[in-house]
Specification:
By secondary structure, this protein is an alpha+beta fold. The protein is 37% helix and 22% strand. It has three helices and five strands. A five-stranded mixed β-sheet has the order 2-1-4-3-5, with helices on one face. The chain is globular, with a radius of gyration of 18 Å. One of its GO terms (biological process) is DNA restriction-modification system.
Amino acid sequence: MERIYPYYGAVSIVDYVDDFIFDGEYLLLSEDGIYVVDENGHPLLQHITGKFWANNHAHILKGKSGFNEDSLYLFLANTNMAPIVTGAAQPKINQANLKSFSITIPTSEVIENFNALIQPFFDQRLSNEAEVKKLESLKDLLLSRLVN
């Protein structure tokens, strides 16, 4: 089988596999390892769209309560989560601590307006990523023709 689906770890793609367990838009929040939060306490996040597999070193998140994945990404990326990190040698955000993390949720009107405001930027990001994939394929095709 063809290994075409990204296999994500805590902070990046670590391999490609021949099957997927997720299909859609998700956030992956680093669970453990050297890079759980940055120097400001902001969590390390991956904003994923499409078919993929994720290992057990990432929390898989979906938006709810009006937050879509885009607004949740921006919210979490700007939130100090250092208080829920445990472990000295191996920093970790465990599921219990993540679920106990309290946040103030804006009104549904504020969230809806924010979602509408940021949507064009995230749509452009997806468009740019698709264009990069096309250009990489074209580069590979042209290089193979040049070499042969």
